[in-house]
Automatic annotation (TrEMBL):
Listed CDD domains: SDR_c (cd05233)
EC number of this enzyme: 1.1.1.100
Protein's UniProt keywords contain Oxidoreductase: yes
Pfam name, any one: adh_short_C2
Keyword terms, alphabetized: Oxidoreductase
Domain of life from the UniProt record: Bacteria
GO molecular function terms noted in the UniProt entry: 3-oxoacyl-[acyl-carrier-protein] reductase (NADPH) activity
Protein name per its UniProtKB record: 3-oxoacyl-[acyl-carrier-protein] reductase FabG
Keyword Oxidoreductase belongs to the record: yes
SUPFAM superfamilies the UniProt entry points to: NAD(P)-binding Rossmann-fold domains
InterPro entries from the UniProt entry: NAD(P)-bd_dom_sf, SDR_fam
UniProt record similarity statement: Belongs to the short-chain dehydrogenases/reductases (SDR) family.
Enzyme class: oxidoreductase
Length: 249
């Protein structure tokens, strides 16, 4: 029999950065969390964290663009822990380029991970949620989708696609008991960002916010945990900007 003592949340890209903070917030709010991440070394590290050793977190390597592997992984999780109650589509990637030098190969890779991966994981999880009559999906987008900061055109387009997909999912899944919302993330002090930006660049980024501060991974994580929780049971089809006012819906 599956262990349904705790509701199961799945976080894609949950082994690092913002995803790691989301996992912590969901555990703190009473969930068992399954991390799926393409980086096998990060997955191995996540499996050694205290929450994992306590049985509150499980982690496995998975490419979210591999439908067959994703279906097998999600079915396996349901067998062990019961149907998925929350899905956070946090996994994403980008590559540096401008509009004039974006290559077709990079475009395809970025769009496939950020948009197609979100579609695949959402569809698989939503089928479990619909069968159970309840569930919440939170998709992670970016202020880049709104022209707030420069970056690769494929990333901006993919995140804009995620937002459109989220609205469509909310309309079609709401009557079936599944809520779908989007968190739009601004500049956030992940290890990845801090390792690549100078102090002057970070200062300019802070100036682009209304609060004069950059976001922290925990800021995004708390917003996601709220949208997954029963406290948000009457919230669906919304975009919540966690950006210090970089973008205001």
């Amino acid at each position: 029999m599956p262990d349904e003592s705790l509701p199961l949340a799945v976080v894609t890209g949950g082994a690092r950065g913002i995803g790691e903070a989301i996992v912590d917030a969901l555990v703190d709010s009473g969930n068992r969390v399954a991390i799926v991440d393409v980086n096998d070394k990060a997955v191995a590290r996540a499996a050694e964290r205290p929450a994992a050793r306590a049985g509150l977190v499980v982690a496995q390597q998975l490419s979210i663009t591999d439908r067959a592997a994703a279906e097998a992984a999600m079915a396996g999780l349901a067998t062990r822990f019961g149907p998925i109650r929350s899905l956070v589509n946090n996994a994403g990637m980008t590559l540096p380029s401008s509009f004039l030098d974006q290559t077709d190969d990079d475009w395809d890779r970025i769009v496939t991970v950020n948009l197609t991966g979100t579609f695949i994981m959402s569809q698989i999880a939503a089928r479990q949620m619909v069968d159970a009559g309840t569930g919440a999906i939170v998709n992670v987008s970016s202020v880049s989708a709104h022209g707030v900061r420069t970056g690769p055109p494929a990333y901006a387009a993919a995140k804009a696609g995620v937002e459109g997909l989220s609205r469509l999912m909310a309309v079609q899944l709401g009557p079936l008991g599944v809520r779908v919302n989007t968190v739009v993330v601004g500049t956030t002090t992940t290890p990845w960002l801090l390792s690549r930006k100078s102090d002057d660049e970070l200062a300019r980024m802070r100036e682009s916010t209304l609060t004069g501060q950059l976001g922290e991974p925990s800021d995004v994580a708390q917003a996601v945990a709220f949208l997954c929780s029963n406290a948000a049971k009457h919230i669906t089809g919304q975009m919540l900007s966690v950006s210090g006012g970089q973008w205001m819906p």
